[in-house]
Design a protein that fits this description.
The chain is of the alpha/beta class. Helices cover 47% and strands 20% of the residues. The longest helix has 22 residues. It is found in: Cytoplasm.
């Protein structure tokens, strides 16, 4: 199983790139957001990969962060969501946006992805709402995990690129943990933290906790 590729970008298309890894060309399908973040033709790029194995076809899908890859795996586990729909959702919202939309139950945000109808968007939110807190908690460690995934790596020498994560991903993770320790359910805590983080993208942990607690306080 190929878990990561590092090579020269030979060409770019609408939905994929060709990476030349030591003379072997790998066709890697990516979301629009991921494609826009990759370097131009002729430069080196590194992507985490997930392989789809079908009876008559093998496809590689590329991601710039582990969080994006993990969300892809969760999304395609939902009935009716194939790789194309998953990449469309990730391309429209990004991994942090997907987590926020699911935590808040905002299926309209998911529906904004090309080719995703309301019924499928609602199913995504319903099926993954219990898994969003764990993914949000993972956010604080994604940057450290970049490049250390336990997977087969086929690569050529190149400087390691930093992970692209939300400005307060670590703060969100810590706030989520604090609220869970206070006894709030994972779903409620994740929804409050996601809403607070959306309003204050650069907020530190203590600020996020206070804002989330206000959102969770009983309404008079």
């Amino acid at each position: 199983m190929i878990g990561k590729l590092t090579g020269r970008v030979d060409y770019r298309a609408v939905d994929h790139v060709l990476l030349d890894v030591r003379g072997v060309g790998y066709l890697v399908f990516c979301s629009e957001r991921t494609l826009s973040s990759l370097p131009p033709v002729g430069e080196m790029a590194a992507v985490f990969t997930d392989m789809l194995v079908q009876e008559t076809n093998l496809q590689l899908f590329g991601f710039t962060t582990l969080a994006e890859k993990e969300w892809h795996k969760l999304l395609i586990s939902v009935q009716g969501v194939g790789a194309k729909a998953s990449l469309a959702i990730l391309g429209a919202l990004g991994p942090d946006g997907v987590g926020r939309a699911i935590a808040l139950g905002d299926w309209n945000a998911v529906k904004a992805a090309k080719g995703v109808g309301p019924k499928l968007a609602q199913r995504v939110v319903m099926d993954l709402k219990d898994k969003a807190p764990a993914m949000m908690a993972m956010g604080g460690t994604v940057a450290q995990a970049l490049g250390d995934a336990e997977a087969e790596v086929i690569e050529a020498p190149t400087p390691r690129k930093k992970a692209v994560v939300a400005p307060n991903a670590s703060a969100q993770s810590e706030a989520l943990s604090a609220l869970s320790n206070l006894g709030y359910s994972p779903g409620d805590a994740a929804g409050a933290v996601a809403r607070a983080a959306g309003e204050m993208p650069d907020a530190e942990t203590t600020v996020l906790i206070r804002a989330a607690l206000k959102l969770l306080a009983p309404k008079e």
